[in-house]
Structure formats: structure tokens, C-alpha cells
Amino acid sequence: MNDENDQQNEGLTRSQLKKHHIFGRNKLNHFKDELDKDLSGQATVGSRSERDTSEFKQKRLGRRLNVAIFILALLLILVLLIMRFMG
Q1: Residues 40-67: pLDDT tens digits?
Q2: CA distance 15 to 50
Q3: What is the 3-state secondary structure (H, E, C) of the chain?
Q4: Is the pTM of this model over 0.70?
Q5: In whole angstroms, how large is the CA radius of gyration of the chain?
Q6: What does the alpha-carbon distance between residue 12 and residue 58 come to, in Å, rounded to a whole number?
């Protein structure tokens, strides 16, 4: 697939490639807007990008909390070991 695109784009100038790239991106954005309109009939909290962002933030927060709990547990064990063998 990339080989076909490379062969097609070989004779184009830089400005023509930019126009082609921008056109392709606008076409994809238009498709995404249509998809969002189709989904608008369903009950949603916000737009599609907001929903994805909130889910990503929740997952990231969950991972960070898991790491923090693990570190605190290790520190607690370390303190208990130090108290056991030093005192």
C-alpha cells in the first residue's frame, strides 16, 4: 500500500504533496464529524473526543494510584524491617 502511494507521489512537488495531505486529513475529519452526528442520537455525556479523554484520564489515574500504593507498601515493610532489626 505504501509502495503504491510512494509511486503516485514521486512526481509531485512539495506544495502538491501538502495539498494532497491536507485534503486527505479534511476528508477524514469530515468522516469523523458524520460519525459523531450518527452517534448524537444516543445518550452521551459529551462529544466523542471528550469521552475518550475522560476514559484515558481515569485509566492513567488508576495506574498512578496503583503505583503509589505499591511504593507505600514497600516503604512500610522497609520501616518495619528496620525497626525489627535495629530496636
Answers
A1: 655 555 566 666 788 899 999 999 999 9
A2: 34
A3: CHHHHHHHHCCCCHHHHHHHHHHHHHHHHHHHHHHHHHHCCCCCCCCHHHHHHHHHHHHHHHHHHHHHHHHHHHHHHHHHHHHHHHC
A4: no
A5: 26
A6: 45
